[in-house]
Amino acid sequence: MGEARQRLPVGAGGPDLSTQASAGLFDMTTRRNFIAGAASIAALGVPRLRAEPVLTDDGLYSEPWFLQSFLELPDDLESARKEGKRLAVMWELKGCPYCKETHFVNFARKDISDYVKSNFEVLQLNIIGSRTVTDFDGQKLSEKEMAAKYGVRFTPTFQFFGERAADLKSLAPQKREVARAPGYLRPDDFLAMFRYVREKAYETSSFRDFLKARS
């Protein structure tokens, strides 16, 4: 929106063009200085403010970088794998205080959000939701039914699955997971859980032992 400038009369004539020209030159100089200043800040590596979580129509907070998909888990997992990432499913519930804390405390830490964004695709599901989700075995269920099938009872809960969709199809639901975080984790432990999966530490140790080894 441009600035409203006062036009001063000069005798019986129109606006003072010299005054307008000076004002225009001042505005142009100001804009150039602003742009140059912004470029200098970026060059110095000053961090930008992070994008805040968005409150969705179903009352859940969502990160702008969360996966937007057709809720077909085999496709989502394979797409993540082709990008060198792992798939995580985050279960939430409207009004869940620890879900909100995960967004506004855990994901607010740049080291956490950067690591998760670089190494994972995160699919958000509603534990009592009605959207249709296609499971790895081809079964189509509502979010609520999917949560029951996998025994998800707490929010937030993060599920981490194996690397290849084809290998998961014939397994029992819980056997498809390589790790699970049921309930809220403090930021450092939260980041450690994602590292635990990314580094495939689940192949040789429990998450508890993984934490002990890093302490």
Could you explain the architecture of this structure?
The chain is α+β, with helices and mostly antiparallel strands. It folds into 2 domains: 13-46; 54-214, Glutaredoxin, CATH 3.40.30. Helix content is 41%, strand content 16%. It contains 8 helices and 8 strands. The chain has helices at 17-43, 73-82, 97-106, 110-119, 143-149, 165-168, 187-198, 207-214; strands at residues 54-55, 61-62, 86-92, 120-126, 132-134, 140-142, 157-161, 177-182. The strands form 3 sheets. Strands 4-3-7-8 form a 4-stranded mixed β-sheet, with helices on both faces. A two-stranded antiparallel ribbon has the order 1-2. A two-stranded antiparallel ribbon has the order 5-6. Strand 5 and strand 6 form a beta hairpin. Helix 4 packs parallel to helix 7. The longest helix is centred in the N-terminal third of the chain and has 27 residues, at 17-43. It starts with 16 loop residues before the first helix and ends with a helix.
